[in-house]
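Quick one, probably user error.
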């Protein structure tokens, strides 16, 4: 079975990624090593150094579901979650405003 990466290549890839753990680094490594981006990500993952990019909303916040907001509201109001059944269908902006008001 042929190896896709030599030990020197693995060390180079890992060191470069540790210096700047970003998607741009992965793309640059892929071009320089004549490999696919997925191949580089796979190798970095197997080496235990790859960090998945965290998703954020357009406003830069960590995403939260409406159900998570309703659970938060129930906790803030110290009531059973079943008392707020159906509230998860309300607009997210309204749920956030309600949470902030409490």
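Nope, works fine. Designed sequence:
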């Amino acid at each position: 079975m042929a190896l896709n990466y030599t030990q020197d290549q693995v060390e180079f890839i890992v060191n470069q990624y540790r210096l700047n753990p970003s998607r741009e680094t992965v793309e640059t490594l892929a071009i320089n090593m004549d490999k696919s981006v997925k191949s580089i990500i796979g190798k970095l993952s197997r080496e235990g150094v790859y960090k998945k990019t965290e998703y954020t909303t357009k406003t830069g916040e960590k995403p939260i579901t409406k159900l998570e907001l309703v659970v938060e509201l129930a906790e803030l109001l110290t009531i059973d979650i079943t008392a707020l059944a159906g509230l998860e269908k309300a607009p997210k902006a309204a749920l956030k405003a309600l949470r902030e008001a409490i």
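The longest helix spans residues 7-19.
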